[in-house]
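SEQUENCE, STRUCTURE TOKENS:
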Amino acid sequence: MISRYLSFKLATLSKGFPAIYVTGPRQSGKTTLVKEFFKNHHYVSLENPNLLEFALRDPTGFLKANPAPCIFDEVQKAPQLLSYLQELIDASPLPGSWILTGSQNFILMERITQTLAGRSAILRLLPLSISEILHQPFQEPVKRLTQIASIPKPKDSLEKFIFKGCYPRLYTQKIDPQDWYASYDQSYVERDVRDVLKIGNLTTFRNFVRLCAGRSGQLLNLSSLANDAGIAQPTAKSWISILEASSLIYLLPGHHKNFSKRLVKSPKLYFLDTGLLSYLLKLRSAEDIPLHPLKGALFETLVVSELVKLFTHAGQEPPLYFWRDHTGNEIDILIDLGKELLPLEIKSSSQVSSDHFKTIRWWFNLKDNSQEQGIIFYGGENSYLRENFIIQPWFQI
């Protein structure tokens, strides 16, 4: 079994909150995590049609039949349960009593923030991180990023990691990634998009998702995206919000510290799993990647998604931004540490050259910028220090 870093935050929060809600995309490992961690809790899956009908018809009776400590899986299917659960928590606020899991959607998140405010903690579980796959011990995010460490090279190549992606079932069962992602795509569109989110034109939505895939790593241009998809711009904005709430994409905001420049304020769009991205781009194998025109975007997506997972699985909101001024000068990632901004550049090449330092050096020299250390993630294998730059291989996240 692959240990999940989120379990450390789960252990802490379950000692202080009566309810814990673990959300995330389908098949990210939520059920496995909570069943393994809360072994003494009664487990109830609302995927079971009989139990779901019971919960919907008689919430009070359902909760009496399934008292604390209890895990309710796929709770988004019966969001009205939360109001009744609130009464039980107020009467007996024992920490760690109720564990809820579900694929995130707008209705459920609104219900939780309204009915269980102050009573529940919300955690998000994304697909496996590369460090989890490699069985590396948990570390505080900034320490992992800045330490010079000798981590054994993975058995699989960079291209295979990109093509395979990081959903747990691909590492616990022998499944062809293309077959698995085809099934995942079908399940997401039909179960989440059609049934839960009530989007009618599934063919147009599927085309929209593939158009987004071709833009991973680019500035989000809703006007262009809507035009290419043949939909209205408000619809494109709504569908982007759906993909973001489903944890399929991540919108990286621009950092707005002035430095006496006019800055780009549109976010950049990234998929949160390169395996799904490869499937949507119709890649047939890992061997397609080195010569693919989007090779750089695939690698950049890998690094950004790993950074998002690094902070998210530590129970933190990712303090990640990019920086670009109106003349085109850009820093791929700024990590906002409060007192300082840590710049990070992403290079897909297997070797680091002096040209790779130019952008960060330029950024160091901006007015009112006192930062003197930067990180470069690249497609090579070694972790080392070069002048005031930390050079990290792609698997050191």
About this structure: The mean pLDDT is 91. The first helix runs from residue 6 to 13. Residues 259 and 369 are 8 Å apart (CA to CA).
